[in-house]
Queue: 3 jobs
Job 1
Amino acid sequence: EKAVNLKKDLAEMQEWMTQAEEEYLEKDFEYKSPEELENAVEEMKRAKEDVLQKEVRVKILKDNIKMLATKVPSSGQDLATELNVVLENYQLLCNRIQGKCHTLEEVWSCWIELLHYLDLETAWLNNLEERVQMTGNLPDKLDAVNDALESLESVLRHPADNRTQIRELGQTLIDGGILDDIISEKLEAFNARYEELSHLAVSRQITLEQQLQTMRETDHMLQVLQESLGDLDRQLTSYLTDRIDAFQMPQEAQ
């Protein structure tokens, strides 16, 4: 009777493993939204826990069959053969479910990482847009233009590492058919805004550089003129002091 019960237990265990394989491993999942992906991750975590919890039952079956084999070798040998098949199938099921769970967790992590880098670069684009707008109505002063140019250039020196991460993470998920529509839309919007703002910023940078160069040249010309006028003023003052008649002066002094 004990052998019959153990045989029944082995059959039930095999049936459960077949159902678990159909439910967790043979479904054709499509992850078209973050919610679907997150639900799939949670489901595979539960599946992994469920399968691992059966390890106790498998061990009890194994111990009982070994014990029976010592008492009734003939019955025990037949059950041992069936047990080996169940043990192999159970280990295979554990490995496959753990592997799929790990893969889905990595995919979810990839998605969260992509969102993180998009947030960072969006914050940078917002800052760049603000700096560009600040250059639109500057006072006509050399210091103000110079400060605005330096401020804009400091933002434009932003490294490209984050954008590389965005491109690679997005392409990895899209290639796997994971959230491809959503990611394509996000990347298209981000890249369009990046191109528009970066071109506008570089154009404004060139304008400010030209404006700054013109102001410096004008400032230098005024300085030279001021020095020349100062020299002339001192010369005329000396003429007046010495009471020199105007017709005795050089033509330019007259």
Job 2
Amino acid sequence: GALTISIFLKPPGVIPPGGSTTICCTCQGGYGSFVLYKGSRQLRTLEQSGNTAEFSISNATYKDRGTYNCHYLEGGTVLARSNELEVSVEELSLPRPNLSVLPGHEVTAGADVMFRCTTTHPSTGCYLYLQGQDRAQLLSREQGDYNLSHVQKGDSGRYSCQCYTMSASREWSAVSKTLDLVVR
């Protein structure tokens, strides 16, 4: 079947200048190599360990901002391309929000859970991140809640949230502490 490649940030979120993150590319069941691109520019070939290849950004600067994707090659032939991953580098001036989950960290498959990202700063929007996903969920503006109904095993993982002001000059918060959801 067709190979699928995932690209994601570990840990996810907007990175402060001087901060660090890792771009991860994973491919199920392949043993080829990954080439990382920023826009249309080839950055480097990544060595795999297991089915994941990692590219570290340390001491981030505004130059690291941009759109990244991975190509997966076997024998020099590109077999698959990942989605595009947007990397943002911004000053983090707001305090870190607090992430909680109801009814709790461990739930049974089929249950409904609610993530709540609470922040002291008024009129902010917040994103919910799940490590390993390239897209964040935008939380509802009123409560900073995100409802996940009928959770499955695939919803297990490490969640965090990050908020920003709704004003013209968008200010970002630090990323919340992580929270592990276990679906049994």
Job 3
Amino acid sequence: QVVELISSAIGDLVQGIYYENSKSSEENCLTDDISISTWKEQVFLSHSALLAKSCQAAMELAKHSAEIQDMAFQYGKHMSMSHKLHSDLQPFVKESSSDTMAFSLNSAPAVFHQEFLGREAWIKQIRELQEAIKAGKGVTSAVDLCRCHGSRALAALERFPPSEARAALANIVYAVTRFP
């Protein structure tokens, strides 16, 4: 039973991380159009399932009743959700205005803001910021850094003997360092 719980928690974690990564890599996707209930589901998979099921498994190992095991699961789930919300809130509730902290556009405060503001106004705000970034030197600097790391990757590949595998790895570098 414990092995099944931990295995399913790892499966949930992998599914949650896969979902986060697949959504963030989609082209033309500034942010997910998610509701707070969808946010909760995603956070459960990627953050809470492991703690919740570990707490439940500990009670199983201690031979507690199913009711106690469920309470341990609920504790782990809600403790982890609180921790994630606390983390998401930090960039917005810090006392010092000089502390600029990075935050996800899919954090709880951003998702609530999107719900209250409306999707169209939310996208307009993000597009205005995107245009400001494009107008600055950040994009060209990031492209230069990308190409620098690509050159270093190719230099490291040169240490290997020529082969189809080496050529394929070099092609990956060429693909990720090519910009319009």
